[in-house]
Design a protein that fits this description.
Blueprint lengths: L4 E3 L11 H6 L6 H11 L3 E5 L13 H4 L4 H5 L12 H10 L4 E7 L26 H11 L3 E7 L24 H19 L3 E5 L13 H11 L4 E5 L24 E6 L16 H13 L2 E7 L9 H17 L17 E6 L2 E6 L7 E2 L2 E7 L6 E5 L6 E4 L4 E7 L8 E6 L4
Parallel strand pairs: 2-3, 2-8, 3-4, 4-5, 5-6, 7-8
Antiparallel strand pairs: 1-7, 9-10, 10-16, 11-12, 12-15, 13-16, 14-15
Helix pairs in contact: 5-6, 5-10, 7-8
The protein binds alpha-D-glucopyranose.
């Protein structure tokens, strides 16, 4: 699980300083930024959307590269992008009903196609497609109208523009035309548009791994300062495959210890692809997704769960089905994950626990691993002090318990239903 965590490390920026001193200044988050981090952690489920002209090929979001297409051929997909079934309000309702608190949409992926209204390139959804609508703008409004937060994924890579220096991915390019400084200015102008036109609560960068193995200055701190100069409250995540650095709210942290003071987010696919893939029906069960959510929450992490919408504007039916299943679970159990912090009770063979200052929720995810005693199950967990109540959740039936001097709490529970996704036990205690 941990190697999937993307640490949302709020982008560090001291916006008052200017010039060369700025790049060295330690990041001091704004009050609004700190507040936004708290709000972010109040919702353990987010919906990730990989949507772009690649969806028309239905081969995942890397198809320009994996299909070895030349950029001109690939770009023809823009002229065929007409998502007639796109209904931002319907999407936003489905996300809201799943229990999600926010949505992260690919504003621009590695193919460089912008899913928003931009004056910086004609290669965008408004100018290059017959659909001609600002889908990012429409979705942002619908998502915010549902009371959810809106975040944008933004790729730092561009497989088509000649000024982005070709890295480890993508297709052949003329190295003589590479000009990172020019590309960087283009990105800044686009990011200004995103911030000023749509006011997202977070930006989620990806692609820094593309220049791995060679010296390359991405000028990220400068970019973070630029962002916070426009909106100090904007959170910044970066899927750079290393520990979060000053100025960020996130990074792919495989095997890296992350600061618990930063909000955490793990992203995962529902099937095996981020972008829509017609042949990939290998969807995870609602049970598996609930377990991902609960296991993440026990570590203080959000789950950013991906869907690859189809080119016709529909969300794939198996994805809608998973959203409905999650929603059904969340309607009863949201309070056992949303806003919960890192639990002091370590993971057990039968499951994990989630934590609030006055309550610990035990989540039995593997009922067969619960030791039996007659027709009862027995849970033994390390526990400081005495509970004020131990009961089933949500029914609230009182359970027998015993706290011993060695610091263990033994709870007798009804034998858990072997087919239950998650059996929850609530332990109340005096606030620490
Ligand atoms: C990787 C992939 C990218 C995807 C991202 C999601 O960076 O290159 O296609 O958007 O993971 O986390």
């Amino acid at each position: 699980m941990h190697n999937r965590l993307s640490v949302i490390a709020l982008a560090a920026t001291l916006t008052l300083l200017a010039g060369s001193a700025r790049a060295q200044a330690p990041y001091v988050p704004s009050e609004g930024n700190l507040q936004s981090r708290k709000e972010f952690s109040q919702h353990r489920l987010g919906i990730f959307l990989h949507w772009g002209i690649y969806s028309t090929y239905a081969q995942g979001e890397w198809y320009l590269s994996t299909g070895h297409l030349d950029p001109e051929t690939y770009s023809e997909a823009a002229a065929g992008f007409y998502p007639a079934r796109f209904d931002a309000e319907q999407w936003a309702r489905a996300f809201k009903e799943s229990g999600a608190g926010y949505v992260t949409l690919t504003s621009r992926h590695h193919d460089g196609f912008s899913m928003f209204k931009t004056a910086q390139t004609p290669f965008n959804v408004v100018d290059a497609t017959p659909f001609g609508r600002d889908v990012l703008g429409e979705l942002t409004k619908a998502v915010k109208d549902q009371g959810m937060r809106m975040h944008y994924y933004y790729s730092l890579i561009d497989w088509i523009r000649p000024d982005y220096p070709k890295g480890n991915s993508g297709v052949a390019k003329d190295p003589a035309k590479a000009d990172y400084n020019a590309y960087f200015e283009f990105e800044k102008r686009q990011i200004r548009e995103l911030l000023e036109q749509y006011h997202p609560q977070a930006l989620w960068f990806d692609g820094q791994w593309d220049q791995g193995g060679r010296p390359f200055d991405w000028r990220m701190r400068e970019l973070y300062d630029f962002i916070h100069g426009i909106d100090p409250d904007c959170m910044i995540g970066n899927n750079h495959h290393s520990a979060a650095v000053g100025g960020e709210t996130a990074g792919f942290s495989g095997g890296v210890t992350v600061s618990e003071s930063l909000p955490l987010e793990a992203c995962e696919t529902m099937n095996n692809n981020w972008g829509y893939h017609v042949a990939d029906l290998n969807y995870k069960s609602v049970r598996t997704l609930v377990h991902l959510l609960v296991r993440g929450a026990s570590k203080g992490s959000n789950l950013l769960l991906n869907i690859g919408p189809q080119a016709n504007g529909a969300l794939p039916e198996p994805a809608l089905d998973r959203l409905r299943g999650l929603g059904e679970w969340m309607r009863t159990y949201a309070s056992t994950v949303d806003g919960c912090g890192v639990s002091p009770v370590p993971p057990q063979s039968w499951g994990v626990s989630t934590y609030r200052p006055e309550t610990i929720f035990l989540h039995i995810l593997e009922p067969s691993a619960v030791p039996a005693s007659g027709d009862k199950g027995v849970l033994v967990i390390p526990f400081q002090g005495k509970p004020t109540a131990v009961k089933t959740f949500p029914a609230g039936t009182a359970l027998k318990w015993k706290a011993d001097k060695e610091g263990f709490l033994t709870i007798s529970i009804p034998a858990p239903d072997a087919s239950a996704m998650d059996t929850v036990i609530q332990i109340d205690r005096a606030s620490l």
